[in-house]
Automatic annotation (TrEMBL):
Signal peptide, first to last residue: 1-24
Keyword line: Signal
Keyword Membrane: no
Pfam families per record: CAP
Protein name, per record: CAP domain-containing protein
Amino acid sequence: MQTARHTILALCLLAAACAAPSSGVDRSDPHGVQAVAAGDARCVVTSETSNRVGAEATNIARARAGLPGVRPNAVLARAAAEHACDMAKRGRMTHNGSSSSGPGARVKALGYRPMLTAENIAAGPFDLNRALHEWNSSSKHLDNVLIPQMRDFGIGHAIGSDGKTHFWAAVYSAPR
Protein backbone atom coordinates (compact mmCIF):
# COMPACT_ATOMS: atom_id res chain seq x y z
CA MET A 1 0.00 0.00 0.00
CA GLN A 2 2.84 2.39 0.89
CA THR A 3 4.49 1.73 -2.48
CA ALA A 4 1.21 2.37 -4.32
CA ARG A 5 0.77 5.70 -2.52
CA HIS A 6 4.33 6.75 -3.36
CA THR A 7 3.85 5.75 -7.00
CA ILE A 8 0.59 7.70 -7.28
CA LEU A 9 2.18 10.75 -5.63
CA ALA A 10 5.19 10.52 -7.92
CA LEU A 11 3.06 10.27 -11.05
CA CYS A 12 1.04 13.30 -9.94
CA LEU A 13 4.25 15.26 -9.35
CA LEU A 14 5.61 14.23 -12.73
CA ALA A 15 2.39 15.27 -14.46
CA ALA A 16 2.37 18.57 -12.59
CA ALA A 17 5.73 19.46 -14.12
CA CYS A 18 3.86 19.99 -17.39
CA ALA A 19 0.41 20.96 -16.09
CA ALA A 20 -1.24 24.35 -16.33
CA PRO A 21 -1.08 26.36 -13.10
CA SER A 22 -3.86 25.90 -10.57
CA SER A 23 -5.35 28.65 -8.45
CA GLY A 24 -3.69 27.32 -5.27
CA VAL A 25 -0.11 27.64 -6.51
CA ASP A 26 2.36 30.39 -5.63
CA ARG A 27 1.85 33.04 -8.33
CA SER A 28 5.58 33.83 -8.50
CA ASP A 29 6.18 30.20 -9.50
CA PRO A 30 2.89 28.99 -11.02
CA HIS A 31 4.26 25.66 -12.25
CA GLY A 32 6.18 24.69 -9.11
CA VAL A 33 4.99 21.82 -6.91
CA GLN A 34 5.90 21.42 -3.24
CA ALA A 35 6.94 17.75 -3.14
CA VAL A 36 8.37 17.52 0.41
CA ALA A 37 9.31 19.85 3.23
CA ALA A 38 12.28 22.09 2.62
CA GLY A 39 15.40 21.05 4.50
CA ASP A 40 18.63 19.14 4.29
CA ALA A 41 19.07 17.36 0.99
CA ARG A 42 21.58 14.85 -0.24
CA CYS A 43 23.09 16.28 -3.40
CA VAL A 44 24.64 13.80 -5.80
CA VAL A 45 27.49 14.51 -8.21
CA THR A 46 26.52 13.14 -11.62
CA SER A 47 28.79 10.29 -12.66
CA GLU A 48 29.97 9.92 -16.24
CA THR A 49 28.07 6.62 -16.29
CA SER A 50 24.76 8.21 -15.24
CA ASN A 51 25.19 10.97 -17.79
CA ARG A 52 25.99 8.44 -20.51
CA VAL A 53 22.99 6.24 -19.56
CA GLY A 54 20.76 9.32 -19.68
CA ALA A 55 22.05 10.32 -23.11
CA GLU A 56 21.61 6.75 -24.40
CA ALA A 57 17.98 6.60 -23.22
CA THR A 58 17.35 10.00 -24.78
CA ASN A 59 18.93 8.84 -28.03
CA ILE A 60 16.64 5.82 -28.27
CA ALA A 61 13.64 8.16 -28.31
CA ARG A 62 15.37 10.55 -30.72
CA ALA A 63 16.32 7.70 -33.10
CA ARG A 64 12.67 6.55 -33.24
CA ALA A 65 11.83 10.07 -34.44
CA GLY A 66 14.66 10.08 -36.99
CA LEU A 67 16.68 12.66 -35.05
CA PRO A 68 20.42 12.73 -34.39
CA GLY A 69 21.59 11.75 -30.94
CA VAL A 70 22.73 13.95 -28.08
CA ARG A 71 26.09 13.56 -26.37
CA PRO A 72 26.71 13.63 -22.63
CA ASN A 73 28.02 17.02 -21.56
CA ALA A 74 29.72 17.57 -18.20
CA VAL A 75 28.73 21.25 -17.97
CA LEU A 76 25.06 20.44 -18.57
CA ALA A 77 25.31 17.60 -16.02
CA ARG A 78 26.68 20.06 -13.47
CA ALA A 79 23.86 22.53 -14.20
CA ALA A 80 21.30 19.73 -13.88
CA ALA A 81 22.85 18.41 -10.65
CA GLU A 82 22.97 21.87 -9.10
CA HIS A 83 19.32 22.45 -10.01
CA ALA A 84 18.24 19.04 -8.67
CA CYS A 85 20.05 19.91 -5.43
CA ASP A 86 18.39 23.32 -5.28
CA MET A 87 14.95 21.75 -5.80
CA ALA A 88 15.63 19.09 -3.15
CA LYS A 89 16.75 21.66 -0.57
CA ARG A 90 13.57 23.66 -1.19
CA GLY A 91 11.47 20.50 -1.46
CA ARG A 92 9.99 22.06 -4.58
CA MET A 93 9.86 20.70 -8.11
CA THR A 94 10.20 23.75 -10.35
CA HIS A 95 12.06 25.04 -13.37
CA ASN A 96 12.82 28.27 -11.49
CA GLY A 97 16.03 28.13 -9.48
CA SER A 98 16.71 29.98 -6.25
CA SER A 99 19.01 32.33 -8.13
CA SER A 100 18.01 31.79 -11.77
CA SER A 101 14.93 31.95 -13.94
CA GLY A 102 15.50 28.74 -15.86
CA PRO A 103 17.92 26.28 -17.44
CA GLY A 104 19.29 28.71 -20.02
CA ALA A 105 20.53 31.09 -17.35
CA ARG A 106 22.00 28.21 -15.33
CA VAL A 107 24.05 26.78 -18.20
CA LYS A 108 25.25 30.24 -19.27
CA ALA A 109 26.45 30.91 -15.71
CA LEU A 110 28.64 27.80 -16.02
CA GLY A 111 30.21 28.96 -19.28
CA TYR A 112 28.12 26.96 -21.77
CA ARG A 113 27.00 29.06 -24.75
CA PRO A 114 23.54 27.79 -25.73
CA MET A 115 21.54 28.55 -28.81
CA LEU A 116 18.61 26.70 -27.26
CA THR A 117 18.05 25.00 -23.89
CA ALA A 118 15.22 22.88 -22.45
CA GLU A 119 14.77 20.97 -19.21
CA ASN A 120 12.73 18.08 -17.82
CA ILE A 121 12.27 17.67 -14.08
CA ALA A 122 10.75 15.02 -11.82
CA ALA A 123 10.27 14.35 -8.12
CA GLY A 124 9.24 11.06 -6.56
CA PRO A 125 10.51 7.60 -5.70
CA PHE A 126 12.27 7.39 -9.08
CA ASP A 127 15.64 5.90 -9.85
CA LEU A 128 17.51 7.07 -12.96
CA ASN A 129 15.93 4.58 -15.34
CA ARG A 130 12.41 5.29 -14.08
CA ALA A 131 12.84 9.06 -14.47
CA LEU A 132 14.15 8.59 -18.02
CA HIS A 133 11.30 6.19 -18.84
CA GLU A 134 8.67 8.62 -17.51
CA TRP A 135 10.08 11.51 -19.56
CA ASN A 136 10.27 9.37 -22.70
CA SER A 137 6.67 8.20 -22.15
CA SER A 138 5.11 11.62 -21.49
CA SER A 139 4.15 13.66 -24.55
CA LYS A 140 4.91 17.00 -22.85
CA HIS A 141 8.34 15.83 -21.65
CA LEU A 142 9.03 14.08 -24.94
CA ASP A 143 8.55 17.44 -26.66
CA ASN A 144 11.82 18.55 -25.01
CA VAL A 145 13.61 15.27 -25.75
CA LEU A 146 12.68 15.56 -29.43
CA ILE A 147 13.66 19.15 -30.16
CA PRO A 148 15.63 18.57 -33.39
CA GLN A 149 18.41 21.09 -32.70
CA MET A 150 19.49 19.57 -29.37
CA ARG A 151 23.01 18.12 -29.35
CA ASP A 152 24.11 18.02 -25.69
CA PHE A 153 22.63 16.43 -22.57
CA GLY A 154 23.18 16.44 -18.83
CA ILE A 155 21.32 14.89 -15.90
CA GLY A 156 21.32 15.65 -12.19
CA HIS A 157 19.94 14.02 -9.05
CA ALA A 158 19.35 14.86 -5.40
CA ILE A 159 17.34 13.38 -2.54
CA GLY A 160 14.89 15.48 -0.52
CA SER A 161 14.71 16.04 3.22
CA ASP A 162 12.48 12.98 3.73
CA GLY A 163 15.22 10.70 2.36
CA LYS A 164 12.73 9.17 -0.11
CA THR A 165 11.88 11.79 -2.68
CA HIS A 166 14.34 11.87 -5.56
CA PHE A 167 14.62 15.09 -7.54
CA TRP A 168 15.81 14.82 -11.13
CA ALA A 169 16.70 17.42 -13.74
CA ALA A 170 17.70 16.75 -17.34
CA VAL A 171 19.07 19.57 -19.48
CA TYR A 172 19.04 19.43 -23.28
CA SER A 173 20.89 22.08 -25.25
CA ALA A 174 22.25 23.14 -28.60
CA PRO A 175 25.54 25.05 -28.50
CA ARG A 176 26.14 28.22 -30.49
